[in-house]
Fold these 2 entries.
Entry 1:
Amino acid sequence: MSVFKDRKAELEKHEFMMGTPRGRLAVSLDLLTEAMVLVGQHAVYCRSARQPEQPPMDIRLIGQGLGQAKELIQSVMEELRAARDSQ
């Protein structure tokens, strides 16, 4: 299902409050946060055989990639805010 149908209410609310680009970025951040929580929960139960104190490498890489994507989206939102404030 399309995110535009699945998250219609959230998108409408955030787009109304922040404008279309920032609203969509905000919902994207929410989706990434939800994915990070799920990966984190999986990491608690799934442990590496070689390093039992850590989750497997694939789980660590997924978490790292999600965190980096979130950081990039946050930087774009800050740039949009700064551009809006300078006008």
Entry 2:
Amino acid sequence: MTRMIFVNLPVTDLKASIAFYEALGFTNNPQFTDETAACMVWSETINVMLLTHDKWRTFTDRPIPPATASEVMLAISCDSRAEVDAMNEAAAAHGGTADVNSQQDYGWMYNRNLADPDGHVWEAMRMDMDAMVAEQENSVEA
């Protein structure tokens, strides 16, 4: 069986969160979606479970951090710099916040951070591994 990851996130407005993640390119898996939770699919192995606060509290007694806190930054790969930029634009247009941290451009890696409506931080990034290897080889030769 292929290993998968399910990232669980508490959300205040499930419908708004579903719309937000769909705008970023995630798709909803109705098999694991009801009025208390939604499964948003990024790839065959990466899923995000959006859980209402009541549903979240059935899994843990730990407090839900405020939207201004950063507990984790979840990085997801994109196929192009344009896709990274489009995700940030979609975040801003659908209740989230674009560029919550400074943009980073190393030539071979480009990333921008966005936050969903509940403050969960995502790093949309594009990496060109061939360019990274070439840069490393050039710095060794110099």
